[in-house]
Amino acid sequence: MPTTLLFILLIIAHIVWGGGFIVIKLLIGSFTLPQILLGRVFMAAVIYALIWHKIPKPTYQKGDAKFLILLALCEPFLLFSFETLALAYTTASQAGMIVACAPLAAAIGAFLIYREKVSQRCGMGIALAVAGVVIVSAFGASDGEATHPLLGNAFMLCAILSSTAYALTIKHLSERYSFLFLSAIQVFGATLLFLPGALAGPMPQEISWGALGSFLYLGVGLTFFVYFIINYALTRIKAAHVILFANLIPVSTLILAYLILGERLATLQYMGAVLVIGGVLLAGAPESSETTEAPQAIPDATHTA
Questions:
Q1: Nearest CA to 134 among 271, 285, 278, 244?
Q2: CA 218 to CA 212: how far, in whole Å?
Q3: φ and ψ at 31, to 5 degrees?
Q4: What predicted TM-score, i.e. pTM, was given to this entire model?
Q5: What is the number of helices (H) and of strands (E) in the chain?
Q6: Which of 11, 53, 95, 217 has its CA 20 to 30 A from that of 133?
Q7: Which of 100, 85, 108, 92 is nearest to 158 (CA)?
Q8: What's CA 174's distance to the chain center, in Å?
């Protein structure tokens, strides 16, 4: 896949991810949080089950089990869980500031583990994107009472660490495993982990067509499409570059909240959004010298999906 097309798909994927917060907000009240989390991965798991026979099966190597388990735990299970816990105790503004640390955490982790160097251009892009997210978050209206902000912020930091561990783990496994196989393991594991909590809560009396559409968005659009693109990108370009696109999530959430829920943005928030997009454009598209060769085990998506 051409780098430019991958760059565009990463932007689309993270805008879809940002829209997921709006969809979840519409579902809250009709379903328990564990049921929403299960719906977020269940439909994607169904898709992977249907195409399982077309996914190349890798040759297992000794020691890979711990990395596959870590992959299933880190994201989406731990990431989604910590995000939900964080927003129960802190404000969205404070949580958004901590999200801005994700590219830095990934860059540091990739340097320590894979010795990936961060170019000056990428560093400048990260700085711009982080500054933009901080502005967007800091000048946003509070979403509610922050009952235990320190605890909530600690949970959000755990979410960032989970996301970083996920990106670095899949980068390691992609040397031997198809990104489709890893994506399937990811959603199968999360489905099993979310299932007990979803069944423990009261079942909804009825499910509307709107709710079904929302779960379709979360399962197919968010979990399947988004992780399909991200996992593929992690096999082609640096982990620090891929996770940089996470800065688009709070920006796209604010814009979609304006369009769908009627929420308004302050002038400074628009300026912050411009900084985020500028940072992504500056550092998100790697130069040819920064790309990695595709592992032989990774097939072209058109032959497997």
A1: 271
A2: 10
A3: -135, 155
A4: 0.68
A5: 14, 0
A6: 217
A7: 85
A8: 18
Digitized pLDDT (tens) for each residue of the chain, 305 residues in all:
787 888 899 999 988 888 887 787 778 778 888 888 898 889 899 999 999 998 888 877 888 888 888 888 888 889 888 887 777 777 665 676 677 667 667 777 777 777 777 677 777 877 887 787 778 767 765 555 557 777 877 888 898 889 888 878 877 787 788 878 888 888 898 899 999 989 988 888 888 888 899 999 989 998 889 878 887 887 787 766 777 787 777 777 777 777 887 766 677 877 887 887 787 777 655 454 444 444 433 333 323 22
Distance, CA of 137 to CA of 116 (rounded, Å)? 29
Cβ–Cβ < 8 Å for 40, 281: no
Q: How far apart are CA 24 and CA 28, in angstroms?
A: 6
C-alpha to C-alpha distance for 102 and 113, rounded to whole angstroms = 16
With CA atoms as reference, report the closest residue to 152 among 216, 87, 67, 81.
Answer: 87
DSSP assignment of 95-111: HHHHHTTHHHHHHHHHH
Question: Domain-by-domain residue ranges, the chain?
Answer: 3-303
CA distances from 163 to 70, 137, 179, 214, 239 (A): 11, 20, 17, 24, 11
| 179 and 233 Cβ atoms separated by less than 8 Å | no
φ, ψ of residue 28 in degrees (nearest 5): -60, 135
Distance of alpha carbon 107 from alpha carbon 241, whole angstroms: 8
Q: Side chain identity at 12, as an amino acid letter?
A: I
CA distances to 55, 153, 167 from 160, rounded to whole Å, are 30, 11, 11
Q: Which two tokens stand for residue 160?
A: 């960032």
| Amino acid making up residue 281 | L
